[in-house]
Design a protein that fits this description.
Layout lengths: L2 H13 L7 H27 L13 H4 L2 H4 L6 H17 L8 H16 L7 H14 L10 H15 L10 H11 L7 E3 L6 H11 L5 H10 E5 L2 H13 L8 E3 L16 E6 L24 H12 E12 H5 L3 H12 E8 L13 E8 L5 E6 L21 H7 L8 E5 H6 L19 H34 L1
Parallel strand pairs: 1-2, 1-4, 2-3, 4-5, 6-8
Antiparallel strand pairs: 5-7, 6-7, 8-9
Amino acid sequence: MSLSATIKSIQDIMRKDVGVDGDAQRIGQMGWILFFKIFSDQDAELELNNDNYESPIPMSLCWDQWADSKTLGKDAPTGDALLEFIETKLFKTFQNLDPEEFSGQGRERALLLRSVFEDAYNYMKSGTLLRQVIDKINDSIDLNQRQTRDVFGNIYEQILKDLQSAGNAGEFYTPRAVTQFAVDMTNPQLGETVLDPACGTGGFLTCAYEHLKAQVKKPQDLETAKRCIQGVEKKQLPHLLCVTNMMVHGIEVPTNIRHDNTLRRPLRDYGPKDWVDVVVTNPPFGGMEEDGIEGGFPTEFRTRETADLFLVLVMELLKPGGRAAIVLPDGTLFGEGIKTRVKEKLLRDCNLHTIVRLPNGVFNPYTSIRTNVLFFMKGEPTEAVWYYEHPYPAGYKSYSKTRPLRVEEFAPEKAWWHNREETEQAWKVPVADIITNGYNLDIKNPNAPEDKHEDPMMLLGQYQEAAIAADKARYALKASLMVALERRDD
């Protein structure tokens, strides 16, 4: 059975349960189950390979001791017995776990386990249906296989499609083509710290980790790569999925993925110890932060608009020479007021060397808002901004669920990146022109081929001249025919 069919089958089981109300709760229910299955499997492997490792999971709570029906047979709990086990033993044990009872990696994993279950919730009220869900996951999803490493992004994307029809907005799944392109162009190096301050389910971070892993030459390098990945996500459900996503990709202790709102900390409290080498992110846009968040920012940047605050924060978090790729809507480019002051700071403190303009439909079906990927480096002012307008593939008029943006489409940008010249897609704008234009970064492509439309009065004059010429030709032809007829009569 395909992954999408398996997910649909699990959702169909959950729809029968009176305790699960809506897609968000269904993915939350799947989330903690999948997390614990992976965590328990990794724990068994760590105990086998490391004599000094002490698991934070009591033996009776290990996955195979209650969840694996094939091994347990009739002894596998179901119905009310399963519900009681999960709610009074599993959840309560992990919510009250004391990490200080463990040491080393065991302590780190105990912290992770407690943090996940503190915010998780068992929505299902039928232990029989819950048993069916657990059995379906056991039978159909092998999370140890590389081809299912992106299962969490896929699950989240599928749920978001369902949420879209219900009118929910603001949580957008970033297409893998965009996350991969952003990581490839910022090009993190082994030993550099990579941060996504609004990491969602971890799309940018998994791409960054795979990018770093490709540079690994010895075991110590792999541990360095794992430590280099940092993320923050304020919503419980995406955070749970991100943590699990990191574990599936091989980061056994993703304690660097924090459940928090990066914007909550006052900007003045950040210092050199918080600086990072690379930021890759797609902060929520179109949303507003809760009251008081803007108070942590300097007066000239105080706004409740999330995307603007994140752009200011990213500039603060980069170390000198640090690089960033951030997805922002068109509104940030042409917006005025506080947006103007944010862009002034960006051009003054950073080299905004490239803006890749994405066409409509990249984020379908979640939003039709046009977006851009801004690439900049901190520590030197902008002298000129290169723009690249990403075209649709031949035959496309927009992207859709069935025809999404593909990573291969960025090949022309990658070929152009280190050997830049103006083309029909690319153009360069001096920063002086941008400043003169009030820091408006929404600059139209001057090289795009356009259909030429002549002046209407000129076209009318040309038509009248053609009509007169046609009349003359008609009269001349008529006269010639008359002459010919007269000669024939003679």
